[in-house]
Description:
Blueprint: H1 14-31, H2 34-40, H3 50-58, H4 77-89, H5 96-110, H6 113-124, E1 129-132, E2 148-152, E3 155-162, E4 173-179, E5 190-196, E6 202-207, E7 215-226, E8 230-231, H7 237-243, H8 245-273, E9 275-276, E10 279-280, H9 285-314, H10 321-346, H11 348-351, H12 357-365, H13 374-383
Parallel strand pairs: 1-4
Antiparallel strand pairs: 2-3, 3-7, 4-5, 5-8, 6-7, 9-10
Bound molecules: flavin-adenine dinucleotide.
Amino acid sequence: xxxxxxxxxxxxxxxxxxxxxxxxxxxxxxxxxxxxxxxxxxxxxxxxxxxxxxxxxxxxxxxxxxxxxxxxxxxxxxxxxxxxxxxxxxxxxxxxxxxxxxxxxxxxxxxxxxxxxxxxxxxxxxxxxxxxxxxxxxxxxxxxxxxxxxxxxxxxxxxxxxxxxxxxxxxxxxxxxxxxxxxxxxxxxxxxxxxxxxxxxxxxxxxxxxxxxxxxxxxxxxxxxxxxxxxxxxxxxxxxxxxxxxxxxxxxxxxxxxxxxxxxxxxxxxxxxxxxxxxxxxxxxxxxxxxxxxxxxxxxxxxxxxxxxxxxxxxxxxxxxxxxxxxxxxxxxxxxxxxxxxxxxxxxxxxxxxxxxxxxxxxxxxxxxxxxxxxxxxxxxxxxxxx
Length: 387
Ligand SMILES: Cc1cc2nc3c(=O)[nH]c(=O)nc-3n(C[C@H](O)[C@H](O)[C@H](O)COP(=O)(O)OP(=O)(O)OC[C@H]3O[C@@H](n4cnc5c(N)ncnc54)[C@H](O)[C@@H]3O)c2cc1C
């Protein structure tokens, strides 16, 4: 494993520092060697290892940001960011977690006790949940969604298609954002409905991507669910979706920061060892200055992310569109930059599958697309400046 150069965010409690240390230890023990990572991912074809995931559940770590009533340890977004950053940096194949945490946020805010017991309790115990907003004709313009849920026979009947749904093939349920009333404006008449993945009329089909098996098309054909599977209030799904944006963006930002840090660490370890012209390539100014720039960006990004997480913990109701979008934008662009510059600094070896760098490149390229593209984040940020 490469040297860990990541600093810890300022202002952590002793308990949180111990959590960082325990996570680094776990990652080194379970996924510290290329052989372990290859085995855990079945030769880098699968990005979620359920056995490893359940070990994390047993340690109580999947419930780090879930209320104690539902089997979690009652932490907040700072704790969640620590977990996401460290597990991304440690290359743990737990692709189902980030999206489960996004779903958890929605249930924390709007779930009934029975729903929280099922979904939040399930996540803390190692179950995966997915969320489906995007459709073929509703990507950045997600309010244009048309997947329909019609009230019938004491429940809802769903018809339509969702696309790009992360972890739907691993999940117990998909939280479907769908149209329950088509008569109003585009942000009215939207609801959130949790559909068990073993429901009749639901089909999950994998989409091939450069990242491997991660996303899915989901088709609904007369798929019936009882009314108690609605999350929150019928026709108020848009407002409920907006309420989750701080948390969603922080989850993606902290994951990207961990990936950025790992690409940096791996490149640094390599350029200290690799010699050309009789000296380590890292001693050439062209590479040293690159390292200095990336290290500075990493530190600044970490400060931003944990500051936003702290603000969310202080007041979970407060909307932070500017800060949360900045964190997502900054961290995901930095992850791409660290991986691409890391590859350049490693020369041909950065391109070889023997090293992780080419996988870091593939993994980070998509981060500026999902969870609201970075163009959309820039739109949101500039709007907060009155543009
Ligand atoms: C790996 C992966 C995982 C995903 N996981 C999920 C998931 O779990 N659940 C889910 O619901 N969705 C998921 N998505 C979907 C993701 O959120 C969308 O891909 C994303 O919102 C962009 O939508 P689109 O792909 O349709 O692109 P489009 O919206 O068609 O955008 C195309 C281009 O136009 C730009 N653009 C669009 N509108 C504007 C504008 N107003 N101003 C400036 N530029 C604009 C975009 O930034 C982009 O560059 C995932 C996507 C990927 C690739």
